[in-house]
Amino acid sequence: MKTPSQALYQQAKDFVQSRLRAGVWKPGELIPSENRLVVELGMSRMTINRALRELTEEGHLMRVSGVGTFVAESRPQSNLLRITSIADEILARGHRYSCEVLRLSREAASMSVAASLSLPTGASVYHLVCVHLEEGVPVQLEDRYVNPELVPDFIAQSFGEKLQPSRYLLQVLRPDEIEHIVEAGHPNTEESRLLHIELDEPCLVLMRRTWNGAKVVTYVRLVHPSSRYRLGSRMAANGAYREGQ
User: Fold this and answer.
1) Residue 200 burial (C-beta neighbours within 10 Å; 0-12, 13-18, 19+)
2) Helix axes 4-22, 34-41, angle to 10 degrees
3) Which of 22, 18, 14 is nearest to 51 (CA)?
4) Minimal CA–CA distance to 68: which of 229, 194, 196?
5) What residues contact 244, with CB distance under 8 A and at least 6 apart?
6) What is the C-alpha to C-alpha distance for residues 182 and 202, in angstroms, rounded to an integer?
7) Is the pLDDT assigned to residue 1 strictly greater than 50?
């Protein structure tokens, strides 16, 4: 049986969902603030916050730190089994794509990065950090390391809206082997800041390595707010990948 506080929380949740179903608040629109909902519904801010938080986790809303809470679009799905350009995915949905490159440098590989690239600790590597945005909202944080021996001109590229790192790498060196590892987690402080999400926002993290011959070309960690993105794939029962799915 529900306690009174749970009943109020569910009432708040039902109120918001009724507005979404009726189309009063449309996808992409900013909904009333927590303070306004507190006054309108006569409930505590804790009750309203809990209702909005759960609706966000369920994918109905999208909360952008420092901006407000928006009605969520249908969550896009990125293919898990093949390397795709996130820009192409976003543009195919008729949405605006943009990219913010935060770092592109040469540095000495830490022990963990060196192990991921099968290089000696301290070896020279390229390091790229960028944020991919859909309609101005961050949907993916890319943290990539590249072996300079295999892709020497990587650091000289002007990555952004017209050229993404994954697209460039596929153009210059087709991989012979791909490794994907997916895990769930929460963002660290820096990831939270760059993705405009709270520290308790669940994230989907895709870690990818690609090989050419016997050498690792790149290791990348892709962080997606789970309320804004999905990862998935489709393949035949015999294990053959269905292209384009």
Assistant:
1) exposed
2) 110
3) 14
4) 196
5) none
6) 13
7) no
What is the distance between the terminal CA atoms of the chain, rounded to a whole angstrom? 44
65 secondary structure, DSSP code? T
Q: What are phi and psi of 38, to 5 degrees?
A: -60, -45
Q: Which amino acid is present at 118?
A: S
pTM above threshold 0.90: no
Q: What whole-number percentage of the chain has pLDDT above 70?
A: 86
Cβ atoms of 114 and 120 within 8 Å: the answer is yes
Three-class SS state of 210: strand
Would you mind telling me the total number of residues written for the chain in this entry? 245
pLDDT at 2 over 90: no
Rounded CA-CA distance 158/53 in Å is 38
- Helix or strand holding residue 68 (H, E): strand 68-71
- Integer angstrom CA distances of residue 46 from 19, 161, 175: 20, 40, 50
Helices within the chain (DSSP H only): 4-22, 34-41, 45-57, 86-92, 111-117, 165-172, 189-195
**In the chain, what are the domains?**
4-71 (1.10.10.10), 77-232 (3.40.1410.10)
What pLDDT, in 10s, does the model give residues 47-97? 999 889 888 877 788 887 778 888 876 554 444 445 567 888 888 778 899
